[in-house]
Design a protein that fits this description.
Helix content: 55-70%
Oligomer: single chain
Radius of gyration: 28 Å
Largest sheet: 6 strands, parallel
């Protein structure tokens, strides 16, 4: 009796749900399975039907408000991750999937519920509107684990974010039409379009205002930008909903897109803060909402319920994709993968809970069955598609190839110069840096940059180190460069690592780098800080030279000795292959060498290069385009 009264405390329910959500995601990370699978299992196990520890019913009406706050932050984060350039490239597929495709899903879901579950048309239509959505809370973590090709990932992420807003508004309008005695299709269409338009306008305006404030360093004191953004997003969500119900979802998504694509100096910090907060909130919501569903109601759906879910997965979703991608450039294999991967997420669960409460308050039957059916859809799609998505992507050949691209720790002037040389050779380059100004400079140069520490596990996961051809530590701190190289070799089995060492510094030896299986960048320890400063001040330039003479074998001691303070070798382009310079490089005839030349020693540098049979390259030859970073 005492234990029962303890767990009736709503504050304890929220605290335990938070803890359970994080523990489940930690375990899932170690087991390398989708976190949502364990979150759902945790919610059911700890909920009233099993252990009775987490009791969402104690929250009363506060549950809906808590879900709303969390959804606002999660979808704002989803909007921030949508790159406008990538969206434009796949605009046709995305537009069709979130409009025509979504309608196909709604109609197909309603028809499946009507024919298989034998529900009346009103309940079946409400079910169809609820399963329109997919959801970034499930799609984004799955894509980070599966690592599919950029085009497929862009379409799935954009569909997950945008269709959440459209589907939620569409579903709520459908509910209002059903419960209103004077409801009509014409009135419902007006309510849908007006809320959609208002949400888009409010979100765009709010996003522009927030982006402007974030650019003004004198307005927002340093360190308060992230929490200010959090408060702004929650206020925007609730204010938009107060003017037009359920328009807040689209408002925060649009605000996220605007801020995420703005060139504010704190955008990288915001992404890191929001992603960490999103992980916590996803855990909280899935545990609470899973615990709020009664197992007996799910069981009562029987084989008919499972058949309805299978119809959604195997018939309705493929129809959605094939109709929604007509005329697009997506291949047959890509369309097939899109047809398989459509797990439902937190918005479907949250809106179905609202439906259950509203229908019960109106004295209309079917609310609990509707919520149970949506939960069954979420559980089956998340578990089945989450656990099989990687295998299906592999079978269809839509996974990103392994050993692709380079990750550079250090978006400083020297790191960016090296990144440009590698990109010219057709390699994808991604930067990691804890300096937001350096990240912004890299993004202005067309690179993707992750803001944070290269030793942070979450940053390493986002950088997809397990598929990279190589990693380079190019910071002025050689200890950090070595730790980064050691970590990526040990934990992610990166085949090649390079470490920049400082000259005239009693610290890490070249033998230490060799013992971990790495190479010393630039061939030997260098004046790293000096080269960075000279590049930043315009006192050094990057040039490309072509070799016409005989081969120079490693270790090329004469080359290394002569290059001190004159020029710095960055990378070699050999045919269509590019790689950083280290002490093992053999220069061959027709090689192209990217070098940094100090203006103060330019005459000496040019004389040395010409004496060693290097010739300047006036015009760059045609090269394959650099892969688009995701």
């Amino acid at each position: 009796m005492m234990a029962s009264s303890i767990f009736a405390d709503p504050a304890l329910t929220v605290a335990l749900a938070l803890a359970a959500g994080m523990i489940a995601q930690v375990i899932a990370r170690h087991l390398k399975i989708p976190g949502i699978v364990l979150l759902l299992a945790s919610g059911v196990t700890l909920g009233p039907d099993v252990l009775g520890i987490i009791r969402p019913g104690t929250l009363g009406g506060s549950l809906h408000a808590l879900v709303g706050f969390a959804v606002a932050v999660i979808l704002f984060d989803g909007g921030m991750n949508l790159n406008l350039g990538r969206l434009r490239r796949e605009a046709r597929s995305i537009q069709q999937l979130v409009t025509v495709g979504a309608l196909v899903t709604a109609a197909g879901g309603a028809l499946a519920a009507r024919l298989i579950m034998d529900w009346d048309w009103v309940l079946a239509i409400l079910f169809g509107t609820l399963v329109m959505v997919t959801g970034p809370t499930v799609i984004t973590p799955l894509l980070r684990r599966i690592k599919v090709q950029p085009r497929v990932a862009t379409v799935l992420e954009a569909e997950g974010v945008l269709v959440d807003a459209i589907g939620a508004i569409f579903a709520v309008v459908a509910l209002e039409v059903v419960i209103s005695p004077a409801g009509s299709l014409g009135g419902g269409a007006w309510h849908f379009l007006s809320r959609l338009g208002f949400g888009a306008l409010a979100g765009t305006a709010g996003g522009l205002l927030l982006a402007f404030l974030l650019r003004q360093q004198k307005v927002l004191p340093e360190g308060l930008e992230s929490v200010f953004t959090l408060a702004f997003v929650v206020a925007l969500f609730q204010a938009s909903n107060a003017v037009m119900p359920e328009s807040g979802i689209l408002s925060v998504i649009m605000a996220g897109i605007v801020v995420g694509n703005a060139r504010a100096h704190v955008v990288a910090e915001l992404r890191e803060f929001k992603e960490q907060l999103t992980v916590m909130l996803i855990g909280l919501l899935f545990v609470l909402l899973a615990a709020d569903v009664r197992i007996a109601q799910v069981r009562s759906l029987g084989w008919a319920g499972l058949g309805t879910v299978l119809a959604l997965m195997l018939v309705v979703r493929p129809l959605n994709v094939w109709i929604g991608t007509l005329g697009s450039e997506l291949t047959l294999r890509e369309k097939t993968f899109l047809s398989w991967l459509a797990p439902r997420g937190i918005v479907a669960a949250a809106v179905s809970s609202l439906f259950a409460q509203t229908l019960e308050a109106e004295g209309m039957p079917g609310g609990e069955e509707l919520r149970a059916m949506v939960f069954l859809v979420i559980a089956v799609t998340v578990v089945v598609q989450g656990l099989t998505g990687g295998r299906v992507a592999g079978w269809l050949g839509v996974r990103r190839p392994s050993d692709t691209g380079f990750v550079i720790l250090g978006a400083n002037e020297l790191g960016r110069a090296l990144g440009k040389a590698l990109r010219d050779g057709g390699e994808e380059v991604l930067f990691i840096d804890s300096n937001p100004d350096a990240c912004q400079a890299a993004e202005e140069d067309g690179f993707r940059c992750l803001h944070g520490s290269g030793l942070d596990e979450q940053i390493q996961v986002r950088a997809e180190l397990d598929i990279r051809a190589g990693c380079l530590g190019v910071t002025s701190n050689e200890e950090v460069n070595l730790l980064f190289a050691r970590r990526v070799r040990k934990d992610y089995k990166v085949p090649r690592v390079w470490v920049a060492l400082r000259r005239e510094h009693v610290g890490i030896s070249e033998e230490t780098v060799a013992r971990l299986g790495g190479h010393v960048l630039f061939g030997e320890p260098q004046d790293i800080g000096g080269w960075m400063q000279d590049l930043g001040r315009g006192l050094a330039t990057v040039e490309r030279w072509k070799r016409s003479g005989r081969e120079i074998p490693p270790p090329a001691d004469r080359v290394r000795r002569d290059l001190h303070d004159v020029l710095l070798p960055l990378a070699v382009l050999r045919g269509r292959k590019v790689f950083p310079v280290d002490g093992t490089v053999t220069f061959r005839r027709s090689d192209h060498l990217y070098v940094v030349i100090r203006e103060g020693a330019r005459t000496e540098a040019l004389a040395w290069l010409r004496n060693e049979s290097w010739e300047p390259v006036d015009e760059l030859p045609a090269l394959p385009p650099a892969p688009v970073a995701v």
